[in-house]
């Protein structure tokens, strides 16, 4: 704690309720010890024997940024408290503002008064400096109504015009130095002054100035060195719009006399600007239009047509503006207006065909470049830093406005098998950066996994196209070739679409290929997804067949079986999958049976079963149970009774006919023929045996 006392301040450090009375107290000013008054008191109120120590240090009340510290130690414990005079008092940072008497008064007086207004706490010292040297003149200091410190420095006009800068500084012990600065009278400028008569029909005169720094400006008209007008003073603050400026832009394409041109437009504003066109240091004549703007400025506008061919070749054009002793050049070329994205191309490197592993003498590498205006790009192949001689195709134009070109490099099979690195470099003539891609034979290629996803049945019955999806994943490197075949015959590439190759989450790369099968070409046969990759000497193939079997109307093969716990009705090899199986006892439909859902077999047909729970004890002799199979192709009825425990009759009902056809009639004929043939063979064998036995010699 602290308290003011006379002309100083007493700092007090008090430590309470300690025991035993073994306490050391020390005051520090910075890191130097200082003497203080100490006294120790014993407390008896609480009944316990404790002590209180008071240490007091008297310091000057002057502002100082020095740090006082009270340090105490008691039984290996240390205590510390700091005090700073500046931090203890709420003070605000000084601010300085410098003003000069109006220029209008300077014309009438022989002295110049500079005023410094300082907003600062007490004990702030103000000083004046001119050109980094202290001013010997004694300033007049006072307080204004806001309790700000005001310092007025009076100078003669000779002193004023002799110096360049005058600085007012404010210093306080608790803050860093603050200052304010003004420019004095010695300002070496050559302003541009022009008297105009903007209205030819009147005697109105206009005085236009340019090239002055910020500050107060006074203007007066003279005739024969005598003032003919009053003085007009204002605060001058030059802005960018008052300085000479030039703008250069690109206009649209123009056709003249069957030739294409690009229009360049240049405008300049200033005091008295003039425009000149240059191309590769050669002056290009072009007319200009001059306009007098509000505020006294002049604006010049000029256009120039340049051949489109020169523009595309990157020729640089310059609009040169001169205004008095100032010159400004603005240049433009095709590189200035091209978007950064137009200077980049997409590069894809294609390795040799997967058949490269066979003995061959030469292979072909392809650098595919896709972008816009590819004639502005250069494509080079390099091997070990040496430029090769590839074959380059002319750019192909695409419907989306882009172009593509291929650069094909022939290399020896020996170099490829030795893992030589081949580099394709692509560079736009406006860019300083070169794009490049490298390719070499992969040392550890990964074989792709190929799978075909069958279309859903609902898609097969769609009136539109059907598609097969081939998934290819886990291969490395990314170069791959995918095609489709039907019964071994290659399909047209317009029927399938290959996706871009992307990184696969489990490693390597992946892609997919979608084969579109028109509804008019729902052919039976085997569709194959054929994948060529350098990891395998033969293509990796996945195949599916009988895709459209489920769309062909096929009647089910029905069979009725008896088990120990009921009857089972089987329906198989039918399509489409929509089917219904019910049970009848006599002519009444039974409610308690269980049907499975139709399932697809390997050849694309469907099968299902229906189970009727029935105990032998519940089956009355003579009762006939019927399995009714309802399908789009017709209705089948399968009957069974307890007496025979076999099929009594299977009737096929064709909805297109009214007659009933017995299915077991054919079976009876075959059974009779088989029985007759068996008896005939047995009788023949018996006759031959008896004859041989009797004919045996004695």
From TrEMBL:
Residues 1-86, 94-188, 244-333, 340-440, 448-545, 562-645 form the Ig-like domain. This is Ig-like domain-containing protein. CDD domains: IgC1. The lineage of its organism: Eukaryota, Metazoa, Chordata, Craniata, Vertebrata. InterPro entries: Ig-like_dom, Ig-like_dom_sf, Ig-like_fold, Ig/MHC_CS, Ig_C1-set, Immune_Resp_Modulators. Pfam families: C1-set (PF07654). It comes from Danionella cerebrum. It comes from the Eukaryota. Keywords: Immunoglobulin domain, Membrane, Transmembrane, Transmembrane helix. The chain crosses the membrane at residues 669-693. PROSITE patterns: IG_LIKE (PS50835), IG_MHC (PS00290).
């Amino acid at each position: 704690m602290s308290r003011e006392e006379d002309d100083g301040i007493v700092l007090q450090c008090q430590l309470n309720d300690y025991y035993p009375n073994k306490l050391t107290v020390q005051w520090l000013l910075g890191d130097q010890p200082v003497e203080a008054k100490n006294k120790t008191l014993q407390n008896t109120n609480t009944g316990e024997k404790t002590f209180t120590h008071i240490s007091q240090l008297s310091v000057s009340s002057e502002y100082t940024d020095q740090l006082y510290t009270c340090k105490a130690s008691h039984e290996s414990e240390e205590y510390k408290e700091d005090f700073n005079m500046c931090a203890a008092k709420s003070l605000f940072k000084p601010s300085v503002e410098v003003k000069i008497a109006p220029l209008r008064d300077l014309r009438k007086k022989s002295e110049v008064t500079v005023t410094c207004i300082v907003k600062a706490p007490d004990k702030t010292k103000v000083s004046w400096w001119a050109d980094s040297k202290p001013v010997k003149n004694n300033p007049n200091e006072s307080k204004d109504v806001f309790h700000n410190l005001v310092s007025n420095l009076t100078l003669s006009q000779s002193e004023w015009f002799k110096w360049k800068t005058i600085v007012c500084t404010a210093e306080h012990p608790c803050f860093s130095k603050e200052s304010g600065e003004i420019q004095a009278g010695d300002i070496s400028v050559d302003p541009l002054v022009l008297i105009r008569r903007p209205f030819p029909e009147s005697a109105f005169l206009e005085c236009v100035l340019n090239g002055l720094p910020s500050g107060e400006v006074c203007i007066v008209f003279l005739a024969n060195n005598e003032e003919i007008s009053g003085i007009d003073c204002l605060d001058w603050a030059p802005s960018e719009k008052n300085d000479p400026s030039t703008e250069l832009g690109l206009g649209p394409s123009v056709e003249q006399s069957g030739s294409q041109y690009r229009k360049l437009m240049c405008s300049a504003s200033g005091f008295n600007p003039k425009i000149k066109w240059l191309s590769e240091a050669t002056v290009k004549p072009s007319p200009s239009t001059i306009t007098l703007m509000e505020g006294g400025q002049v604006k010049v506008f000029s256009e120039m047509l340049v051949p489109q061919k020169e523009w595309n070749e990157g020729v640089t054009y310059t609009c040169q503006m001169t205004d008095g002793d100032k010159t400004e050049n603005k240049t433009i070329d095709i590189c200035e207006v091209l978007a950064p994205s137009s200077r980049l191309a997409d590069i894809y490197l294609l390795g040799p065909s997967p058949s490269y592993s066979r003995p061959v003498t030469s292979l072909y590498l392809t650098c595919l470049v896709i972008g816009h205006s590819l004639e502005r790009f250069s494509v080079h192949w390099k091997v070990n830093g040496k430029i090769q001689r590839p074959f380059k195709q002319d750019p192909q134009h695409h419907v989306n406005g882009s172009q593509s070109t291929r650069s094909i490099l022939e290399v020896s099979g020996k170099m490829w098998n030795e893992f030589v690195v081949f580099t394709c470099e692509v560079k736009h003539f406006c860019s300083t950066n070169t794009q490049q891609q490298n390719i070499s034979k992969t040392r550890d290629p990964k074989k792709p996994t190929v799978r075909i996803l069958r279309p859903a049945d609902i898609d097969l019955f769609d009136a539109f196209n059907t598609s097969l999806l081939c998934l290819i994943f886990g291969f490395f490197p990314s170069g791959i070739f995918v095609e489709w075949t039907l019964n071994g015959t290659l399909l047209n590439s317009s029927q399938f679409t290959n996706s871009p190759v992307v990184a696969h989450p489990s490693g390597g790369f992946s892609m997919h290929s979608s084969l579109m099968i028109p509804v008019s070409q729902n052919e039976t046969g085997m569709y194959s997804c054929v994948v060529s990759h350098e990891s395998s000497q033969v293509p990796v193939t996945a195949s599916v067949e009988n895709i459209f079997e489920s769309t062909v109307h096929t009647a089910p093969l029905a069979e009725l079986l008896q088990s120990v716990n009921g009857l089972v009705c089987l329906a198989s090899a039918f399509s489409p999958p929509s089917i219904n199986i019910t049970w009848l006892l006599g002519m009444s439909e039974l409610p308690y049976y269980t049907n499975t859902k139709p399932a697809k077999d390997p050849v694309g047909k469907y099968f299902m079963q229906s189970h009727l729970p029935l105990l032998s004890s519940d089956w009355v002799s003579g009762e006939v149970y019927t399995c009714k199979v309802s399908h789009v192709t017709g209705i089948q009825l399968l009957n069974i009774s307890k007496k025979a425990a076999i099929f009594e009759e299977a009737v096929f009902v064709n909805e297109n006919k009214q007659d009933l056809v017995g299915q077991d009639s054919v079976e009876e004929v075959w059974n009779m023929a088989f029985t007759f043939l068996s008896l005939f063979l047995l009788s023949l064998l018996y006759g031959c045996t008896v004859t041989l036995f009797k004919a045996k010699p004695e």
